[in-house]
Protein 1
Amino acid sequence: MTGHSVILLEGNALPFNLDRTLSCGQVFRWEKRGRWWCGIIGRDVVRVCQENNTLIFSGTTEEEISGYFDLELDLEEILAGFPDDLILRTAIDFAYGLRIVRQPAWECTASYIVATFANIPGIRFRIKLLCERFGYEIESGEYTFPSPHTLAESPLCDIRSCRVGYRDRYLCGTAQMFSSDPGFRDRVAALPYKEARNELLRLPGVGRKVADCILLFAFHHFQAVPVDVWIDRIMKSHYLNEGEKYSYDQIADTARTIFGSHAGYAQEYLFAARDALSKKK
DNA sequence: CTCCAGGCAGCCA
DNA sequence: TGGCTGCATGGA
């Protein structure tokens, strides 16, 4: 065993809650084994655990941990800047310290293409199969996320063998876009929200919701508000007229109007607390 | 067995 | 632009 390193959480790194951050459904590959979270950042097999205001980790550098979990971000200021409404306050209390991690753009894009029209356990299952089938085995049982090139060159039937169903051609098509245009990621990263969104919408399998997930989780455009069935339900029942019809943009715009320029962060807290907030029967 | 899920593309008006 | 529909699949 190589040694472990320690990060003392202080200043902007507070608040931080590792459990809430990794279990809220924004990432699909992390696994909790005992008190350790095990995951892969790039080509590093990383293990992390939190003891109060101490983060203990192995397999990578403090810089990578800090960057991945966005520990420089002044989260306290963002949370304090939200309006004082009961619903959002309930969600923040529930998931206090949840941070939106900096996902690699390609992994995030491919993951959320797989995530459409599926539930989280099913998404994790399929992504695991994809990594085992197309990733590179760094250690025993630990695989990298498949490269765009690998998926772009793979027959659809091989991709489908990972149980992704009709999404096979979306995965392959978007992989071809990333693979054939290495500058795509950096160009999108340099664009403002609307323009970046329009670029992402050109990718097969990427619609409004998936684009907003990529913009929020990979590019940290905090005005992006992904509206899935849960957010749709929560916004209608608590902030709009339940039973009425609203478009995707109406829901997202309502969230931006109420929660402000960091509405995407508010969205993620509402999503994390969806069980308590969505009164489904 | 039935219903549901971090939606999308393709179609039609 | 907006509304409708089919869709692969595993989980609950």
Protein 2
Amino acid sequence: MDQDIDNTQIAADIQADTPNEILLAALKLFAEKGYFNTSLGDIAKAADIKATSTIYQHFGDKQAIALKLYESIFDNLNVSIDEIRRKSQKSSEQLHGIVDLFFKLTDDAPYIMQFLLVLNTSEFLPKQNPILETPAFAKVVKIIQSGIRAGEIRNIDPILATTYFFGIINNTLRMVLNGELDKKAEVYQPQTWLAAWNLIAKKSTCF
Amino acid sequence: MDQDIDNTQIAADIQADTPNEILLAALKLFAEKGYFNTSLGDIAKAADIKATSTIYQHFGDKQAIALKLYESIFDNLNVSIDEIRRKSQKSSEQLHGIVDLFFKLTDDAPYIMQFLLVLNTSEFLPKQNPILETPAFAKVVKIIQSGIRAGEIRNIDPILATTYFFGIINNTLRMVLNGELDKKAEVYQPQTWLAAWNLIAKKSTCF
DNA sequence: GTCTATACGCCGATAGAC
DNA sequence: GTCTATCGGCGTATAGAC
């Protein structure tokens, strides 16, 4: 049991085995430098491995590493969203749960949020769904749709409402990730949540 | 005079000479496939040039092409923003002018907006300012600051207000660029402007 | 100013010993 | 299962003819 469980929480099965070391090193480097600026040599070094060939024992090729990361992150995101939806029926509370998750991840697992919000996965995973066509995203749209039916959310195009809502949330988190907003994400969470929610809520308090 | 002046409007000096052909080809390819998935061979072919060596007659290296694009786009953006600021004193009208420009560019020069909103320029232009530290961005913050002083805009952190405002605007444009929103940008402009403006305006009409 | 031809290096990927 | 050693190719960049 290592004590470096910082960024791994969401990164699937937490095992201190070599494949996971490789994944964590790759996630960090991809987030920091981008996929194409990261060589297998970089990953090997960061994972305390002497030979790049060792990587091929665990992954088919470089893309496969990125793919595994992509799948881990979205699988975990899916599970988290399902849990959030089970806890409450109200769209407002479900959305609040997702926002809470995103802000926590930004502070606790910034590499994962960098992967989600900043990297253009379609550039190195062309066969994979772009984030906006991912099951996780579809679930968010569903939440907003049912919020509209329930009268919680204004009657506008659900896709557009989702675009506005996460435009605010994600842009704020991007600004935190790149240091343009210099405090922890949690500092901005309350007012950012209010701004985003009031934007789509039916009975907005206006300020 | 060629008739393909589609995407060139903002791309600086419009001349049908070879350097400009190269820049236009590169812009298109970078926007479509990303910088690292685009080889000099790709650019040469798209620019109707037989030899990659010709490119080196006009640009120092591959990065220099991206740098020239970066400078052209931001120089033109700067000029446009200055013009907009000169036309009116009111922050609301200045912001509306910028929003109008962004939506028009998304419909008329999508490659430029892709470059601005989607590409991670810091991955291939590490020495250049990230977009958020660009003079153009600083001017937007200034507009919002003076809007706060004038009582037009609510008294919140100008950086945060800018983040919210362009979170909505830019995310909407990103959704148009990738086809997730399937109509022209101009279709979404009125309600998106209202959503973004009411979010930061002091006397919001609420809906 | 554009071409042909070619050099060079990096990095992804493989073979095979231990 | 990790290592050493090496290959092959792609893509950047250069030399030099026309």
